[in-house]
Amino acid sequence: MEGVGHAPSATAWATPDANDVTSTNGSEKFREWCNRKWRATLQPKHFPVALLIASYVGWFSYLSWKLYYGYGYPAFDLAIFDQGMWLLTHFHIPFVTVMGRNLFGDHTSFILLLVAPVYRLFPEPQGLLTLQTLAIAGAAIPIYRLGQKLIHNTAIATIMVAVFLLNPALEQGNMQQFHPEAFQVLIISVAIYAAVESKGVLLGVMVVFSLLVKEDAALLIVPIGLWVLWRRDKKWGLWIVAGAVAWTAFALEVVIPNLLGRSSLYGGDIPYGGVSGFVRALFTTPRTFFSYFVHDGRPFYVWQLGFTTGWGFLFSPEIAVIALLAVFENVVSTLPYMHQLMYQFSMPIVPILVVGTIWAIRRQPTLWRRDILTGITLTCALSSCVLWGLAPFSHHTAVSQWPPNGTTVRAINALEQKIPPNAVVSAYYLFVAHLDHRAQIYLWPTPFETGNYGLFNNNGTTLPVAKDVQYLLLLLPINVDEGLTTYNAIAKHFTLVSSRDGIGLFKRISK
């Protein structure tokens, strides 16, 4: 059948390809394989893709570092993951005091355990931000390879890489602090490549990696398993679906409750009181139920997602529907960030839609129809990047709080250097990501008056650890919105030891 792809042999999913280096013996054959791959990679036809990837990495590394050095990243979520990684790589329990929860109880992002060795080599927030950019850009490689193999046209495959890298959901999500979903972009791209190319071992590894990213990864993996069951190998497909469902149940019913002390904090994002209430509302109040989906920008969000690739995947949607459950989760959620293009929740959907468009282009019966569909896709990708992206030619740009080389930044840096490495600190929210390499760092006015902390059941209370806080780093003058009432209640225990350019460093003088 045209467009379905080759059918694998009975052993294709159990053993590596006969031409793969793992099936040969001897260092000479390995060197031969490496040389062959290297020569193939250096062909001039691949240079445009290499340039696109390098341009993306260079530009978004520059933007993310500019925001970081200009104090443009709030504590949520960069400082959460940076403190968590610092704790892990220093062999501490990853209880993140920025948010008051265990890192893996908040979300089961065990993929960070695999990232930890890399972080140890580059133990700074800048390292996480750069790694995030590399992971997103790296997904262009399996997309390019699929484009070449399915369409047999390097020019179109290169254009589809551009469509991917121009996507505003990727660009905006890349600049939303740091999130493990960035790794999902790469993992899902490789997983779909492995599924289409019948590389069972590679697919199995990617399925495991994907499930380690977050507890809801089954919404991506189950559809991939169903596609494999339908198009490639029934046994492998069933194993993938069963494994994804089992891991999700284990994560939600065992891991999170044991680490958090209760069920997931995010179960409340499902409307009508959870899954049972959601289903009940469908049958008891259908008019109200369906009206829910037209509010809060949800239809526009769905249209934006499709427009970024020109909706071309609809011509043959069997790959694109892999994203259906993830899109549904975002649309259903009561959390408004989930159905806005600029947040990390949409990033893993992007490579699926791009590969889905490649699949649809491949299925076109004539060359001129392929070219027209490719042209429409590229036009929509460029337009969406101009309207909503963060490329140099986009209407929007990433703006730091202060100029990275300005006097305010120099003043903050000088004050931060006065704080001992192991001191317990409570700081203004933009300072936290620069001070989180310590066991206890709090987002002011926590722990003196808790707000967005812990299980959200102690708002307004004072934590016992408040007596241990040694330093405060705050904006001056402290106003009501920045916790003036809280400061007045503890002022007798602290003294201003240094101030520069509207920033004050306070040190505890008494209990």
Question: What does this 3D model show about the protein?
Answer:
- With 511 residues, the protein is mostly helical.
- It has two domains: 48-388, no CATH class; 407-508, no CATH class.
- Helices cover 53% and strands 5% of the residues.
- The protein contains 21 helices and seven strands.
- It has helices at residues 27-41, 47-69, 75-89, 103-106, 111-121, 125-138, 140-151, 154-165, 168-174, 181-196, 200-211, 218-231, 234-260, 275-284, 286-291, 298-307, 324-332, 349-362, 367-388, 407-416, 484-490, and strands at residues 95-96, 101-102, 425-427, 441-443, 471-475, 494-500, 503-508.
- A five-stranded mixed sheet has the order 4-3-5-7-6.
- Helix 7 packs parallel to helix 18 (349-362), helix 10 (181-196) runs parallel beside helix 12 and helix 12 runs antiparallel to helix 13.
- The chain is globular and about 80 Å long.
- The termini are far apart.
- The model is unreliable at 1-5 and 15-24 (pLDDT under 50).
| Largest sheet, strands/sense/barrel | 5 strands, mixed
* Cross-sheet strand order for the largest sheet: 4-3-5-7-6
Strand/helix succession = HHHEEHHHHHHHHHHHHHHHHHEEEHEE
Any idea what the radius of gyration is?
Answer: 25 Å
Number of domains: 2
How many strand segments?
7
Unreliable sequence segments: 1-5, 15-24
* Cα distance spanning the termini: 77 Å
- Count, helices: 21
